[in-house]
Design goal:
The protein is an alpha/beta fold and 229 residues long. 32% of the residues lie in helices and 23% in strands. It is globular, with a radius of gyration of 17 Å.
């Protein structure tokens, strides 16, 4: 393609977000060669298309109520009139709870209908969520909430990643593990969620570092302080 969009965040040495930058503050290189910046925009006002994908498999049952309340706070804090969000749940299967909308009441209702048990179709959720975002115009973000690990023989990791990249969907992974030092943690699944976020330009956060509310807040702050080059 002739035009490539790059979304970036800028922080100082302490990790604090740096705002108010202009196009002149940035330089872009590809394989060592300087590239022309054809377009520059602060992301604070750019419309956002977001799919919130929540793991409702058996392993997350005890955290279901906490997930619902934290997700509701996230929706209420993030969504503006120009934004659109959809909600999907994934266990053995992937189900859409709410289509793309900016209606807070509809999003709340979808979150209240979270149900599930069984396995974890993580890669199916990424594949289908990315494909849905691909039909939208503007910035596209897939927020995953899971304890990590795909346990359903469906979409592969490679196919899920390819679908996210093809549809320009940035993945933000919220890894919700019960106990930081638990011997039963699926570390491989957690690593996959971290890598998916890195490969698509998103970020990953652990829920035990301040709880789910803090993890959702980190995602919200990150999305609201991006620049697009």
């Amino acid at each position: 393609v002739k035009l490539v969009s790059v979304f970036v965040n800028v922080t100082d040495k302490t990790g604090s977000v740096v705002g108010g930058l202009t196009q002149e503050d940035f330089k872009v290189f590809e394989d060592g060669s300087p590239q022309k910046i054809a377009h520059f925009e602060r992301q604070s006002e750019m419309p956002l298309n977001l799919t919130l994908a929540i793991d409702t498999s058996s392993s997350t049952f005890k955290d279901r109520g906490i997930e619902q309340q934290a997700a509701k706070k996230f929706v209420h804090a993030l969504i503006r009139p120009q934004d659109r969000m959809s909600v999907i749940q994934f266990n053995t299967y992937v189900d859409e709870l709410t289509g793309f909308t900016n209606n807070i009441a509809l999003l709340d209702r979808g979150l209240e209908h979270m149900r599930g048990a069984g396995g974890t179709a993580l890669y199916d959720a990424i594949y289908l969520g990315s494909r849905g975002l691909g039909r939208r115009e503007g910035r596209k973000v897939l927020v995953l909430v899971s304890d990590g690990g795909d346990t359903v023989k469906g979409t592969s990791y490679e196919d899920a990643l390819e679908q996210a990249l093809r549809n320009e969907a940035m993945i933000y992974s919220i890894i919700d593990v019960p106990i930081e030092a638990s011997a039963g943690r699926d570390v491989g699944g957690e690593h996959a969620m971290i890598t998916l976020a890195e490969q698509t330009g998103g970020k990953s956060f652990y829920a035990f570092e301040g709880g789910l509310d803090k993890a959702f807040q980190n995602v919200s702050e990150d999305l609201r302080t991006q620049y697009m080059i």
